[in-house]
Design goal:
The protein is built from four helices and two strands. By secondary structure, it is of the alpha+beta class. It has a single domain (6-72), classed as Orthogonal Bundle (Arc Repressor Mutant, subunit A), CATH 1.10.10. Strands 1-2 form a two-stranded antiparallel sheet. The longest helix has 13 residues, at 15-27.
């Protein structure tokens, strides 16, 4: 994945966002609502965060029986600065 700036990298891979990724990986929530409950984040904020992460390929948002289910695609990162 490519980030246009180190500030966008820092925003997407913030401590809070990496905690969300770990929660998805470990708890495997069945919906956005369940993930919001597990993380204590508000659903609209969490949805925006996950859509941003999905655009970078960090998560996939799958539809299952009308629910949006987050699935982690990456939890380890190697950062190369040029």
């Amino acid at each position: 994945m490519w980030f246009h700036s180190t500030s966008s990298l820092a925003a997407v891979l913030s401590d809070d966002n990496r905690a969300v990724l770990r929660t998805i990986r470990d708890a495997k929530p069945g919906s956005l609502a369940e993930l919001a409950e597990l993380t204590g984040r508000k659903p609209p904020n969490l949805s925006r965060t996950l859509k941003t992460m999905a655009s970078y390929g960090l998560v996939e948002l799958r539809r299952d029986k009308g629910l949006l289910v987050p699935v982690v695609k990456a939890t380890e990162f190697l950062v190369v600065l040029d």
